[in-house]
Design brief:
Strand content: 5-15%
Helix content: 40-55%
Largest sheet: 2 strands, antiparallel
Number of helices: 5
CATH architecture of the largest domain: Orthogonal Bundle
Amino acid sequence: MSIVSKDIPLAEITLRKYEKPYNSDRRELVKKLCLSIGLLQPGDSRDVMVDVLLSLINTGEALDSKQIEDNVISIRKSYNLELKGVASSNIRRQIKRLRDLFLIENINNKYRISENEPLISIFEEKIEKFYIRSITERVKEYFRALSAKE
């Protein structure tokens, strides 16, 4: 019996480089962060992810998904943005994406920035040192495997 490998990634991350942060408002900074780490696609009109993350950053405390949803609606109204993507199911999906990237954690059905750490610490410790390193090590294995067959 032969083993069939599936072309489903075990982990993935998108990284983009934008101009340096300048005097943008907080929402614009969060949006550029989301674009930079692949949580948002360039030109994407559905940017509720920005408001989900902004809600957790702004409150600094653990929130349940309903509280996050209410905050997202409030944020979008304050910026005169359409209420696209604010359905409970979509908010929960965005929360899962943030959890998958280790930016937030779930404690007793409430979500908060992981370990209440500064975002830069989370990026350096969990994403850069662990997540990205494990991906690049696996890519190197493919390079080595091909080099051995040359």
